[in-house]
Write a structure and sequence with these properties.
Elements (H helix, E strand, L loop, with lengths): L5 E2 L8 E2 L3 H18 L6 E6 L6 E4 L5 E3 L1 H6 L7 E6 L2 H14 L5 E5 L6 H7 L9 E7 L8 H7 L4 E7 L2 H6 L1 H5 L5 H6 L4 H8 L6 H14 L12 E4 L6 E8 L3 H13 L9
Parallel strand pairs: 2-4, 3-6, 3-8, 6-7, 8-9
Antiparallel strand pairs: 1-5, 4-5, 9-11, 10-11
Helix pairs in contact: 1-11
Length: 281
């Protein structure tokens, strides 16, 4: 574990996360650093967008250990982004994030949006600086929901600007527990996450085993992103994160970009992801 991911408890609200979140935050911290530094002189403005921002800190469930969350990791890179847009549904968590940002990065230009990112997508887009030939704007969007509750239409709306996405596909446990409900039921959850309703036909036609459902959904999501002109991501370029207790597959962490340069950074992230020393040791 990278000890510089941990912080002291400041007494503000702090949601619980599983111990495997350490892996996720290590990867996000590294990618934020590579992206923000590598793009600093190639774009006039770099904008970080966190659609499920949380409180900025998170507690490892069952312990007293406090982790820096994704907003704080992005704020404390060597070359900070020019603007930050934080969306969080919980008013309590968003207020805690505001207080932490004010204390840790008072110079940051940050916009706070309270509510569901899907309901507030127009406000999020309004906060993105307008790009032009003399003001090139590149965004990095983090999509980190608690389950496979992504709304693909939200990503489609954001994709109208120059934006790369790091997406957490929380389909490991969700896909296993709710398989019958998704495949044979009338739940629209997967339809909304993938942006189409014909994935069931492809699943049945593929003749795959039930245990392969999560891999199928990950590749379907990659195909959906390809429809927005993003480079298709194969499974072996996604990071599968497993639980610490039973080694169960929990989620994929994947990068989606329209440019190959971003994947050079992602390759470094994958290269060091299993090295406990990594670049943070």
């Amino acid at each position: 574990m990278s000890e510089n991911l941990f912080v002291e408890n400041d007494g503000l609200p702090c949601p619980d996360v599983g111990s495997w979140a350490v892996t996720k935050y290590r990867l996000l911290a590294l990618y934020d650093e590579l992206f923000s530094t590598g793009m600093k002189y190639k774009w006039d403005q770099r904008v970080y967008i966190d659609l499920y921002a949380g409180a900025g800190y998170a507690r490892v469930k069952g312990t007293k250990k406090i982790l820096k969350g994704s907003p704080i990791l992005a704020l404390t890179v060597t070359h900070p982004f020019d603007k930050y847009i934080f969306c969080e549904e919980s008013e309590e968590l968003l207020e805690a994030l505001k207080a932490r940002v004010a204390r840790l990065s008072p110079q940051a230009q940050a916009a706070y949006i309270q509510g569901s990112c899907d309901a507030k997508i127009e406000q999020i887009c309004w906060e993105i600086p307008k790009g032009s030939s003399s003001n090139k704007v590149l965004c990095l969007g983090l999509v980190d929901p608690f389950d496979f509750g992504i709304k693909f239409e939200t990503l489609r709306r954001l994709s109208s600007v120059y934006i790369d996405f790091v997406v957490l596909l929380a389909i490991g446990m969700d896909a296993s527990r709710n398989y019958d409900h998704y495949v044979d039921g009338d739940s629209p959850k997967i339809d909304e996450a993938l942006g189409n309703t014909d994935w069931r036909e492809r699943w049945r036609a593929a003749g795959m085993r039930r245990r392969d459902f999560r891999q199928f959904l990950a590749m379907e999501f990659s195909m959906s992103m390809k429809s927005l002109d993003y480079l298709e991501q194969p499974l072996d370029r996604m990071k599968l994160v497993r639980s610490d207790e039973k080694n169960l597959p929990l989620y994929y962490l994947a990068l989606f970009s329209r440019h190959k340069t971003a994947f050079k950074f992602w390759e470094d992230v994958l290269k060091y992801s299993d090295d406990q020393m990594g670049l943070f040791g």
